[in-house]
Structures are given as structure tokens and as C-alpha cells.
């Protein structure tokens, strides 16, 4: 298997976002990754959806590894910033972060 540079987890559950807005985010993510050249090669990003990340409020929740950066209240506009600024350019969208696994 070709290595991945990052892994993005999108909660598509109904507790953090009663309207399950994470589902639409997850659908958009593939197109954004493709647009930014993040589906193949050394900067390849793996995406996954999950039914719950254990937060269950202020969703949709999106987590990015290996940095262990967790974003809350992710709108389509914020998702685009996460893809461009964080996944493509390596700069965390600091104002939307609510949890960091590593200090
Ligand atoms: S349902 Fe999204 S974090 Fe639990």
C-alpha cells in the first residue's frame, strides 16, 4: 500500500450534528482533495467517515492525524480551509481547533 501523509476523520453521526451535516462534508471532501492534488503521491490524504468520535456536541467534528488536531463546528467553508491550509499547506486553522492530542 502506498503511504499516506495524513488521515482525516469526519463524524457523520447525529449527536454532534442533529442534521448530520457531517455527511455532506464527507461527500465534499473527496472533490476537495482531488482539486488540491491530495489523492495521490507523497501528500496523499486518507479520508474516513465515522459514526461517532465521542464528542457529541458542536459538530460536525473533523479530526486530522498524525497531528491529532480536532476541529468543531465544521462548515463547508471551514472544510475547504482545512483542506487548503492544513492538508495542502501544513498550516493548522488555529481558530477552529478545540482539541490537540499532542500538547
Ligand atoms: S456523534 Fe459526532 S462525535 Fe459523537
In short:
Helix content is 27%, strand content 22%. The chain has two helices and five strands.
> On the 0-100 scale, what is the average pLDDT?
96
Overall shape: globular
> How many β-strand stretches?
5
- What is Rg? 13 Å
Number of domains: 1
Biggest pleated-sheet summary: 5 strands, mixed
Number of helices: 2
Looking at CATH, which topology would you report? Glutaredoxin
Helix content: 25-40%
Bound molecules: FE2/S2 (inorganic) cluster
Q: What are the low-pLDDT stretches, counting only 5+ consecutive residues below 50?
A: none
Please write the string of helix (H) and strand (E) elements. Answer: EHEEEHE
Cross-sheet strand order for the largest sheet: 2-1-3-4-5
CATH architecture assignment: 3-Layer(aba) Sandwich
CATH-defined superfamily: Glutaredoxin
Per CATH, the class reads Alpha Beta
Taking the alpha carbons of the first and last residues, their distance comes to 31 Å
What portion of residues belong to β-strands?
Answer: 15-25%
Q: Which structural class matches the secondary elements?
A: alpha+beta
What would your notes on this structure say?
- With 103 residues, the chain is α+β, with helices and mostly antiparallel strands.
- The chain has a single domain (14-95), classed as Glutaredoxin.
- The protein has 2 helices and 5 strands; from the N terminus they run βαβββαβ.
- It has helices at residues 21-35, 76-88, and strands at 6-11, 45-50, 62-65, 69-71, 97-100.
- It has a 5-stranded mixed beta sheet with strand order 2-1-3-4-5, with helices on one face.
- Helix 1 (21-35) links the parallel strand 1 and strand 2 (45-50).
- It is globular.
- FE2/S2 (inorganic) cluster binds next to loops.
Amino acid at each position: 500500500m502506498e503511504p499516506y501523509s495524513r488521515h482525516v476523520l469526519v463524524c457523520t453521526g447525529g449527536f454532534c450534528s442533529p442534521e448530520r451535516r457531517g455527511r455532506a462534508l464527507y461527500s465534499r471532501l473527496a472533490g476537495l482533495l482531488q482539486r488540491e492534488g491530495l489523492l495521490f503521491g507523497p501528500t496523499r490524504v486518507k479520508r474516513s467517515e465515522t459514526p461517532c468520535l465521542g464528542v457529541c456536541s458542536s459538530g460536525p467534528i473533523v479530526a486530522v492525524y498524525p497531528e491529532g488536531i480536532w476541529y468543531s463546528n465544521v462548515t463547508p467553508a471551514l472544510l475547504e480551509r482545512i483542506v487548503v491550509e492544513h492538508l495542502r499547506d501544513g498550516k493548522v486553522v488555529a481558530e477552529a481547533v478545540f482539541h490537540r492530542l499532542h500538547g
